[in-house]
Structure formats: structure tokens, C-alpha cells
Design goal:
Layout lengths: L6 H12 L5 H17 L3 H15 L5 H18 L2 H18 L7 H21 L3 H22 L4 H19 L4 H22 L4 H21 L2 H22 L4 H17 L22 E3 L2 E2 L3 H9 L9 H19 L3 H19 L4 H16 L3 H18 L5 H16 L3 H18 L5 H16 L3 H19 L4 H16 L3 H19 L4 H16 L3 H19 L4 H16 L3 H19 L4 H16 L3 H19 L4 H16 L3 H17 L8
Antiparallel strand pairs: 1-2
Length: about 700
């Protein structure tokens, strides 16, 4: 019934089944089917609620096909919210499902191709939401391969082949739009037309997939008319839109997002023909292609998905107008919250920003630039409170809304996306961060110029990100270029210039060029003393790195002197339990060990670990680093049984915090295995080494896990 588009009948049948006392797997599958029905009917809030119930019922396990169905619902919800972070999470869920299937019996060819199409579609949506054009092209090639395989293995008329062709035609059109090549765009529109005809032949006119394919084609005809400025093409688009509007209204109802999209497209078409009035409010921003997410196409209009378009059309056109007095009060409160943040009072700042955002949303609307500015600051405050995942989600929503309202290359849109990239890096998702930084940098260079401070800041961050990906030579070269540009534009001792020189020194260390790193850090430390003062956090951070370099060069006695002085200054400035004070004490303990003073090193590691556990919690990465240092010292003292217990605590803590495949977790497994070797428990050690190697081999390479 769902495949035939009989929404109400399917919904009633599934709701009846949900109420029966069925076994858990049957109930879970029923919930997943019901969520899919609501998503196809355009009832996204209810689809989201039922999806949550289904995932609770799955409890982390469940049938792969049920999980894939829920992922398809998640994709629809992500399109509805216009949220690149949500799209990224759907993509990661599908990659994880694929990894779990390895070694399982081969599924039927149809189901396997269906899974490939869904995964590629999600990857394409994610890439487009971030304007990652190169990745869009790569995924389009994957879709072409999947469509060819489906035709060869299942036949050209098989439903999965037709579905693959529909997705491929959408992807080809989206990539063609970016080429500013009318013949290529025209070819892509004809491919959409062919896909729609095949869908109609395979499924019938009223099937939801056919209606989607017909809508894709009709809206693309209108985009082509705008591109080539042809009255004949405009007439062709109008005919196609009228035809599919009748089919969609009959098939899915006038309130379905697709039907709403078509009504808006027809308004735009009449406006272009000079026969219709100019729509007001959000209607003037409405267009035109099913899956476009806030991607600029035309200077007067922005592309929206039908889901977002439907939401926009049903939003009140004139939200309540705030008085000038209230607007002034809100701006004053916003500035006060910014001041709280500058003073380091991030919890208070967060509360104030939330109050301002709530009032602005009520009085100005959720997509008003001032509302989005407040939500941006909420995310920024959350990031300062180390709530990186929460902050990332809000930055993603703000980025999507700003792209829709202001345009994807507006400075505010780029700022939100750049913060997303920063947080992806903090969460260890470095390849995704690289994708976002690269796209933002390209947009900044186009719109601001190569040496604009914001462009240079993005390049600085990208250089750091390259290092996190292990590409240290590239990171070093890019950082040198940024330092030269910043010195030229801002001055040799500007804080931003010194920040990039600091990253150059770090890259030199990672490349094993410790003498050069030491010299650079010392230069930066001296300049920061002059520019910022001796007690500034960045000055003290540079002194810490000087100690690191000395230790790496075997000059541990000198490093010890540096750390002793740094601990005193950190304690005086920030207090004995400040994380950076404890970090300096950790460095002191490491160098005590390098000098063979292992009893002192053990005592220092235990003291630091105790404070970190109390202040930060037992699972905090810094606490686990200290616990590992305890294990190292115990090993050097020959106390291997005690060392093993500490190593195991570290491994468990890291796995809980970071997941089983994180590099730090794999390193902990190797530490534990080495300890077992020292205890003569060779078989256990070999098992652990093998487990670490298998997990390392299974770690995904790049965004698509390939």
C-alpha cells in the first residue's frame, strides 16, 4: 500500500499492527514502516517521533534492513531541517551498518543495490549541504556505476534499476547546474525527463517515486528556462509543471510538500511569463529542484528542497513585529552576553543568549538574521563549555538557515560553516573538517580575496587540519604561506601572525625537525612577551612547547627547569588545579622519567591524575593521559602487574569515550599487549596485538569509508 501511495490505508493498517502484542522484532519493523509512511506523506514531526520509538526498540541492534529503512527516514528528516550535521550523522550510520555487514552472508542483489543507492544518496546530500562540489562529482560517478550494475544484474526495468537511474539523474543535474554550461544543463534535464518516463512505466503515475521524478523534471525545465532565457523553454516548463501538479494533487494530496513545491514553482513560472503577481514573503525565495539545499543558483532566488519549501510556504508571511524599544533591549542583552563570554563567563553567556534567541524567534521569526545571530552565539558558548557535539548540531542548523536566507557564500553563512569545521576537528572527524574547510576557503577567496583576514584565518585552520590528517609537509607549507601573508598584512608581531608561527613550529616538530621547532617557539615566546605580556595564556603555552622540544632533543635537565618555572607561573596566574597548570606538571613528570628519576615521576603522575580525576572526571582524556603515565612509570620500576591494571583502565576509558576504532584506543591495546609480554603472557599479548591490527584495518579511509 505504501508503494501505491495509499497513505491513509497504510497508516491505519500499521497503527493497528503497532497496537497488537507482537514480538519485539515485529514491533520494531512495524514502527519503522509507520515512520516511513509518515515521512512519505510529508508529516515529518510524526515521522521523527516514531523513528525515535523504533530506535529505542532496536536498542543498538536489530535487522539491517530495518536500520536502513530508518536511515531513509532520517534522510527525509535531514532534508526537512536543512541540517548538514544531521546528514553527516545519517551517512556515518550507514557506513557503520556496512562495516557490520562485512563477513555476513551476501544479501540478495536487489537489496544490496538498494543499500548502495541509499548510501550514495545520503553522501550526495551531505556533500551538497556543505557545497562540497568535488565530492558531489565523485558520488555522481558512484551512482552511475551502481545504476550500470543494477541494469546488468537486475535488468533495465527492475524497480531498483529505475530508482538508481532517478537518483543518478538528480545528481547529474545538480552537478551540471554548477558548470554554467547550457548544453550540459539541457542534457541533464533530458536525463531527468527520461528517468521520469521510466518511473511512470515501472511504478505508475501515482506512485510517490514517480511523482518525485516528474517533479524533478518539471522544476528542472523551469531552471533551464531561466538559464537560457527562452520563452519557448518557459512554455515547455509551464506545461510540465501543470501536468505534474494535477498528478501530485491527485496522488499525494494538496498539502504534501511536493504538491506545495509545485504550486510555488507555478507561481514563479507565471511571474517569469508576466502573467502572475509577485509572491510576498518566503514565496519570492521559493524554487525549484527537489533536493537542493540552500545552494545559490540565481541572484534573485535561492534553491530549496520541497520539504523546506513546504515549511516556508506554511510559515506566517508576516511574523509579529517587535517594537523598536524591544529590539533595542534585545540588542543590549545580546551585547551583554557577548561581554560575559569575553570575561570567560560562558555559562552565564549561554543562558542570556538562549533568552534573547527565544524572544527573537517569537517576535522576528526563526530565520530572521538576528535570531540566527543569537543561535550562532549559543553554539559558540556551548563549544567554549566543551559541549562540542551540541554546538556542532546548532551550528549546522544556523549554517543551513543562513544559506537559505542570506545565500551560501554570505560572510555569516561561511562563518557558521567554518565553526562547524572547527568542531568536526575537535570531535576527531578530521576528514569531514577538511572537506568543509576546503569549500569555505574557496568561497572566501572568491568573495573576499586571498589575503582578507577571514580568508587567512580559514587557511590557518586548514593547515592545522592537514596536520591532524598526518599531512605534515602540506601543513607546514601552507602555514608558512599564511604566516608570510599575515606578517605582510597585519605585522610581524600581530597575535594572528604569531599564532601561525606557533603552528609552523608544531609542524616542524612533527616532521622531526626539533632544533628548528625549538628556535621558532623561542622566537614566538619572545614576541608574545612583548606583544601580549609574560603571563598571557598564549605566552605560557609557547613556553610549554619549548619544554617539549628540549625533552625531544634529549635535553631533559633543561626541560625540567622550563617546566618548574612554568608550573610556578601557571599556579600563580591560574591556580593549582587549572588544566594548563596540570599539563605543565605532567610535562615535568615526563622529564623526571627521562632523567631516570622514576619514583619522583610516579609520584608526580599520581598527584596530577588525582587532581584531574577530581576536577575533570575519570574519563576525561587528560585524566587518562595521566593514568597512562602512571602505568609507564610502574613499568620502568618493574611493577608490571600494577602497570597492567593501569593500562587496562586507560583502554576501557578511551574506548568508552572515543569508540573502539579510535587511534588512541588502538594505542592503548598495544600498551596492554606490551605489558602482557613483559609478564610472560605471550598468547594474550598476541591476541591483543591482532585485535588492534584488525581494528586498524577496518577504520574508514575518508568520508565514504572507502
Amino acid at each position: 500500500m505504501v508503494d501505491l501511495g495509499e497513505w491513509e490505508e497504510a497508516r491505519r493498517a500499521l497503527e493497528t499492527a503497532e497496537g497488537l502484542d507482537a514480538e519485539q522484532p515485529v514491533r520494531t519493523e512495524t514502527l519503522a514502516d509507520l515512520a516511513a509512511v509518515h515521512a512519505r506523506a510529508g508529516d515529518f514531526e510524526e515521522a521523527g517521533r516514531i523513528t525515535g520509538l523504533a530506535r529505542l526498540a532496536l536498542d543498538g541492534g536489530g535487522d539491517h534492513e530495518v536500520r536502513r529503512l530508518l536511515s531513509s527516514v532520517d534522510l527525509a528528516l535531514a532534508r526537512w531541517s536543512n541540517d548538514p550535521v544531521q546528514l553527516s550523522q545519517v551517512a556515518e550510520d550507514l557506513r557503520e551498518a556496512d562495516r557490520e555487514r562485512r563477513g555476513a552472508p551476501e544479501s540478495q542483489r536487489s537489496a544490496e543495490i538498494s543499500a548502495l543507492v541509499l548510501r550514495a544518496a545520503v553522501e550526495f546530500e551531505w556533500a551538497r549541504s556543505l557545497n562540497a562540489h568535488e565530492h558531489m562529482v565523485q558520488v555522481t560517478d558512484v551512482l552511475a556505476t551502481v545504476a550500470a550494475r543494477a541494469a546488468a544484474e537486475l535488468g533495465a526495468r527492475h524497480p531498483q534499476t529505475v530508482t538508481a537511474v532517478i537518483n543518478l539523474s538528480c545528481a547529474e543535474f545538480e552537478t551540471a547546474r554548477r558548470t554554467e554550461n547550457p548544453p550540459r544543463l539541457q542534457s541533464a534535464v533530458r536525463a531527468l525527463e527520461e528517468a521520469a518516463l521510466r518511473a511512470s512505466d515501472c511504478f505508475g503515475d501515482r506512485h510517490p517515486l514517480t511523482i518525485t521524478a516528474l517533479t524533478n523534471h518539471a522544476c528542472a525545465e523551469l531552471d533551464l528556462a531561466r538559464a537560457v532565457e527562452s520563452p519557448a523553454q518557459l512554455e515547455r516548463a509551464a506545461d510540465a509543471l501543470h501536468a505534474v501538479d494535477r498528478i501530485a494533487t491527485a496522488g499525494v494530496g494538496a498539502e504534501h510538500p511536493t504538491a506545495r513545491l509545485l504550486k510555488g514553482a507555478l507561481k514563479a513560472c507565471r511571474r517569469m511569463q508576466g502573467t502572475g503577481g509577485v509572491p510576498i514573503g518566503y514565496g519570492s525565495q521559493l524554487t525549484l529542484v527537489r533536493t537542493a539545499v540552500g545552494d545559490e543558483w540565481h541572484p534573485r532566488e535561492e534553491l530549496m528542497s520541497p520539504d523546506v519549501a513546504s515549511r516556508a510556504l506554511s510559515t506566517p508571511q508576516h511574523p509579529a513585529v517587535a517594537s523598536q524599544e524591544l529590539l533595542a533591549l534585545l540588542e543590549e542583552s545580546h551585547e551583554f552576553a557577548l561581554h560575559l563570554g569575553e570575561q570567560g563567563e560562558w555559562s552565564s553567556a549561554l543562558g542570556t543568549h538562549r533568552q534573547v534567541a527565544a524572544t527573537r524567534e517569537t517576535r522576528l521569526g526563526p530565520d530572521h538574521p538576528d535570531t540566527l545571530a543569537s543561535r550562532y552565539e549559543i553554539a559558540f558558548a556551548l563549544s567554549k563549555l566543551d559541549r562540542h557535539a551540541d554546538a556542532l548540531g546548532i551550528f549546522g542548523q544556523v549554517a543551513g538557515a543562513r544559506a537559505r536566507v542570506l545565500g551560501p557564500e554570505h560572510a555569516d553563512s561561511l562563518a557558521a560553516r567554518q565553526e562547524m569545521a572547527f568542531l568536526l576537528g575537535r570531535l576527531g572527524r578530521h576528514f569531514e573538517a577538511f572537506q568543509v574547510y576546503t569549500e569555505v576557503l574557496g568561497a572566501r577567496e572568491r568573495t573576499m580575496g586571498a589575503e582578507h583576514p577571514d580568508t587567512l584565518r580559514c587557511r590557518h585552520n586548514l593547515a592545522f587540519n592537514l596536520g591532524q590528517l598526518g599531512r605534515w609537509e602540506e601543513a607546514y607549507r601552507m602555514a608558512c604561506e599564511v604566516a608570510e601573508a599575515r606578517s605582510r598584512r597585519l605585522g610581524a608581531e600581530h597575535p594572528d601572525t604569531l599564532a601561525t608561527l606557533y603552528e609552523i613550529a608544531y609542524a616542524l616538530g612533527q616532521l622531526g625537525r626539533w632544533e628548528e621547532a625549538l628556535a621558532t617557539y623561542r622566537d614566538v615566546a619572545g614576541a608574545r612577551v612583548r606583544a601580549l605580556g609574560p603571563d598571557h595564556p598564549e605566552t605560557l603555552a609557547t613556553r610549554y612547547e619549548v619544554g617539549v622540544c628540549l625533552g625531544r632533543l634529549g635535553r631533559s635537565a633543561q626541560a625540567l627547569e622550563v617546566y618548574h618555572a612554568l608550573v610556578e607561573d601557571r599556579t600563580r596566574v591560574h591556580g593549582p588545579e587549572d588544566p594548563e597548570t596540570l599539563r605543565a606538571r605532567h610535562g615535568l613528570g615526563v622529564n623526571l622519567g627521562r632523567l631516570g628519576r622514576w619514583e619522583e615521576a610516579l609520584a608526580e603522575a599520581r598527584a596530577v591524575c588525582a587532581v584531574r580525576e577530581r576536577a575533570l572526571g575519570p574519563g576525561h582524556p587528560d585524566t587518562l593521559v595521566s593514568r597512562r603515565e602512571i602505568a609507564v612509570a610502574l613499568g620502568w620500576l618493574g611493577r608490571w602487574e600494577e602497570a597492567l591494571a593501569s593500562y587496562r583502565q586507560v583502554a576501557r576509558g578511551r574506548e568508552e569515550a572515543l569508540g573502539p576504532d579510535h587511534p588512541d584506543v588502538l594505542a592503548s591495546l598495544k600498551d596492554e599487549a606490551h605489558c602482557l609480554e613483559q609478564l610472560g603472557r605471550t598468547d594474550e599479548a598476541v591476541t591483543l596485538f591482532r585485535r588492534a591490527a584488525e581494528r586498524a584495518a577496518d577504520r574508514p579511509r575518508g568520508v565514504d569509508g572507502a
